[in-house]
# Entry
Amino acid sequence: SKWVRALVGGEVIADTTRPLLVWEVPYYPLYYFPLDDVRADRLHDTGDVKHSPSRGDAHLLDIHGGRGIVREKAAARYDDSPVEQLRATVRFEWDAMDTWLEENEPVHVHPHDPYKRIDILGSSRHVRIEVEGVTIADSTQPRVLYETSLPPRYYLPICDVRLDLLEPSATVTGCAYKGFAHHWTVVLDGERTRRDVAWTYWTPLPEATKIAGLICFYDEKVDVHLDGELQERPRTHFS
# Structure
């Protein structure tokens, strides 16, 4: 099975080939580590308890990493969980760890979900993007990204997008499969704005290099015309 490690301050806190994937929310899983594969000397019980309706009481632990770094209440044990598989495991707050590794590859945002994948296909379909009746992009050379449980996303060459109507946003979001996306805001008439309706992966992860430097719009927030037909806006958690 997959080799997974979690580090703080350059110190390996957990190291296992028996990770447990737990879906606490519908969208993605988290790793739970068997107690035997966790550095017990690096975890200090705070005495605090946090209750979960589904997982029971979590005993919160401070993580003492390398270089004297302490991450408070960033780990939890569910010793008496009603879910038997969670007993004798440790859960770590994802963002509290400096580095996550699957085998020797860094992992970002959350673990890779074995039930999800992405496919990126070149296409010659005609994609036109409108915001408030104004054409923002018009392309016949999209790259279509198919991701499990999400609508197709149309990534368009920058030369096919009205950059004079876009401003870079400070918003950056992460994806475990594609990397970190830098967002764009649409500005109409110099004042009307639609914040963060598009994004670009400037340096995507290796499996998503085909979309590097392209611009994609939220189908949920703009009008998408595909081969001349206006598409119904999908309903997702991005709506």
Q: What stands out?
A: The mean pLDDT is 97.
